[in-house]
């Protein structure tokens, strides 16, 4: 796909706000007619800019309102261990984000659970699958900002 233009960025911004917008409303919001808007959405999907469209659910209503950040430091730094760790968390639905970090923490996981007992059960599942040497768990007391929106202001830089 060619370089993104202002219409593409407006489409992406609106879809990040509400991916369920009917095409006519999306087109009107970005200043295009329906057919050109639809073609652009298809190109954005084909180009990989839109990976998928999902619904954002209410964690509290679904009894998964406790957010836990799990910081892992390891003495093992091999591809084999990383692949085993990666495989160990893949089918744990409570773990919603998993990052390899720079700095003092090697890996950071974000989990959504119902309570401390549910976190303890998750922790026990995790350590039964892989040997972890240093684990620190931090429970979020209050969510001050959370978004799935990607900032679009960097497009066109450099």
From TrEMBL:
Q: Does the keyword Lipoprotein apply?
A: no
Cell wall biogenesis/degradation in keyword set? no
InterPro entries for this protein:
ArsR-like_HTH (IPR011991), AsnC-type_HTH_dom (IPR000485), Dimeric_a/b-barrel (IPR011008), Tscrpt_reg_AsnC-like (IPR019888), Tscrpt_reg_AsnC/Lrp_C (IPR019887), Tscrpt_reg_HTH_AsnC-type_CS (IPR019885), WH-like_DNA-bd_sf (IPR036388), WH_DNA-bd_sf (IPR036390)
Q: Please give the superkingdom of this protein's source.
A: Bacteria
Q: What is this protein called?
A: Lrp/AsnC family transcriptional regulator
Entry keywords, A to Z = DNA-binding, Transcription, Transcription regulation
Q: Which CDD domains match?
A: HTH_ARSR
Which portions of this protein are annotated as coiled-coil regions?
A: none
HTH asnC-type domain boundaries: 4-67
PANTHER family named among the record's database cross-references: DNA-BINDING TRANSCRIPTIONAL ACTIVATOR DECR, LEUCINE-RESPONSIVE REGULATORY PROTEIN
